[in-house]
């Protein structure tokens, strides 16, 4: 991120905190409760945004070395992603060309080749068919035409991006748009994958995304957790086509008023999320990150799955490994460096036990059918943008403003 952009954001956050105001989109919107419950809408979303749309499946650190692989199964197409011995990123349908059995069953690991457990057809991590047992008995087979089905795949700005359809169009530069150079500047490709948390909850996938769309709740819902570290009711926000940047203030920003601008530390004074259409929330960069991938349940609009991948820099890992701070009090004490496991656990539990718990109650209300709409306030522009963007992609009318 350019330094002048950082300073502009810091000035805006300080202004809002000083004047005791939040961001103002100038309009409130009505959001139909049916957007979280309608089966027909859910089917359109599944086909449009998941089975037929590029998917960010991880960061470069998910495939840390030649021979690394990972699988992805949450958007209707089983994917096997690999890094070959030359370091190139590939993606394939995780399916043997003989009878369609999965060739990789572990969620991730290292392998130079993959063997179908059914009849032991084997494939290189470049997708090439290597061996057909008892080929003379099986009959003629052209190995050059029967490798794993290749999927469009690109590694861009430290992101691993795959299109679920072999003939799908994947242009990662277009997908990231003007936000691409900024994401690239954080060196996400240098971060080390440290683990994954899977959250399965009774809320629509868009309600899960809504969790990351405003700071209005920080000082209320999170007053005993994140509220100890971050200011609520202050937001610096910018749209980038279908994507956006969402920045809030840490308590460290209070000290900037006594420092010259050249000493302002953006990373210590803010927290931020990049939203990547349609279902990715990417936090951090530089020294740590969380990739939050949110998927619908294809059979139930009222359920969703969230996969949170955690990443840290090698320097942070070395520092945190020397600490024994693992309690909630340590995590929310800005003067302590907690362990990596503690940071990850609290991040996950805050989402599930605070944010998603609220979303589950909203889901029940929507399903009851008595409340027909919810209201997005003037201080919630990310929610305006997110919902209007997905509606536009489905050729639906935009949200109606509150009179």
Q: What is the arithmetic mean of pLDDT?
A: 92
Number of strands: 20
Number of helices: 12
Percent of residues in beta strands?
25-35%
Q: How many domain regions?
A: 2
Which value, in Å, is the CA radius of gyration? 23 Å
The share of residues in helices is: 25-40%
Shape from CA axes?
Answer: globular
Q: What CATH architecture label of the largest domain applies?
A: Alpha-Beta Complex
Distance, first to last CA: 38 Å
The major sheet is characterized as: 7 strands, antiparallel
Widest β-sheet, arrangement of strands: 12-18-17-16-15-14-13
CATH superfamily membership of the largest domain, which one?
A: Naphthalene 1,2-dioxygenase Alpha Subunit, Chain A, domain 1
Low-pLDDT residue intervals, each spanning 5 or more residues:
none
CATH class type of the largest domain:
Alpha Beta
Class by helix and strand content?
Answer: alpha+beta
At CATH level 3, the topology of the largest domain is Naphthalene 1,2-dioxygenase Alpha Subunit, Chain A, domain 1
